[in-house]
Specification:
The structure holds two protein chains of two kinds. By secondary structure, chain A is mainly beta. Chain A has no helices and eleven strands. The model of chain A has no long low-confidence stretch (mean pLDDT 92). In chain B, strands 2, 4, 5, 6, 9, 10 and 11 form a seven-stranded mixed β-sheet that branches. A four-stranded antiparallel β-sheet of chain B has the order 1-3-8-7, with no helix packed on it. The chains are: A mainly beta, B mainly beta.
């Protein structure tokens, strides 16, 4: 079974600093990996989806990389702002044809950006 | 606007009283899923559906039922709720296939007394 780990569990940075969030997975044969943002008590907002054939994906200040061989994905947020304060989660689906719909989530990294 | 809606958003009920949480999506996605989120345990998948009339268990299906009679709706049924089902529930819809991207609803906070 795929296991997804996010370290650290919490992170505090001053405004303007770049954020680096890590996501590790045990089974390197993933089809894709998705990054989400969650505000307290709210639903998850999709940030980026990286397919297994891609090495990185970018959207505005966000850049996600994927290294399947090392079982790692990294989410970079450039020039952080207080509005980036949230919990960030990563998730990936099962790797077999009968488990594509089965997702495993990391526990998340809680980010606080201080003004 | 593309969205996933859930109803109710908040519910307080008592042990044993059957309830249904509805989930609807307007994106015409084949894939839908239910999760629960608990402090310290993270997001765990309850059930998912790859298409109409096709459902399968996630990691924590005990005590829940689902049905997928039409593409847009995927209700979650608790036949006899218990206090350990107190949780924040999320419905998601997504594109099908191995590159499926999920989009989440706003959540339903359920308390079972």
């Amino acid at each position: 079974k795929q296991e997804v780990t996010q370290i650290p569990a919490a992170l505090s940075v001053p405004e303007g600093e770049n954020l680096v969030l890590n996501c590790s997975f045990t089974d390197s044969a993933i089809y894709n990996l998705q990054w989400f943002r969650q505000d307290p008590g709210k639903g998850l907002t999709s940030l980026l989806l990286i397919q297994s054939s891609q090495r990185e994906q970018t959207s505005g200040r966000l850049n996600a990389s994927l290294d399947k061989s090392s079982g790692r994905s990294t989410l970079y947020i450039a020039a952080s702002q207080p509005g980036d304060s949230a919990t960030y989660l990563c998730a990936c689906p099962g790797r077999t044809t009968d488990s594509w719909g089965k997702f495993q989530f990391g526990a998340g990294t809680q980010v606080v950006v201080t003004p | 606007e593309a969205q996933v809606t859930q109803n109710p958003r908040y519910l307080i009920t008592v042990t044993g009283k059957k309830l249904t949480v509805t989930c609807s999506q307007n994106m015409n996605h084949e894939y839908m899923s239910w999760y629960r989120q608990d402090p310290g345990l993270g997001l765990r998948q309850i059930y998912y559906s790859m298409n109409v009339e096709v459902t399968d268990k996630g990691d924590v299906p005990e005590g829940y039922k689902v049905s997928r009679k039409e593409k847009r709706n995927f209700p979650l049924i608790l036949e006899s709720p218990s206090p350990n089902q107190t949780s924040l529930y999320f419905c998601a819809a997504g594109t099908s296939g191995i590159y499926n991207e999920q989009f989440f609803g706003p959540g339903t906070r359920l308390t079972v007394l």
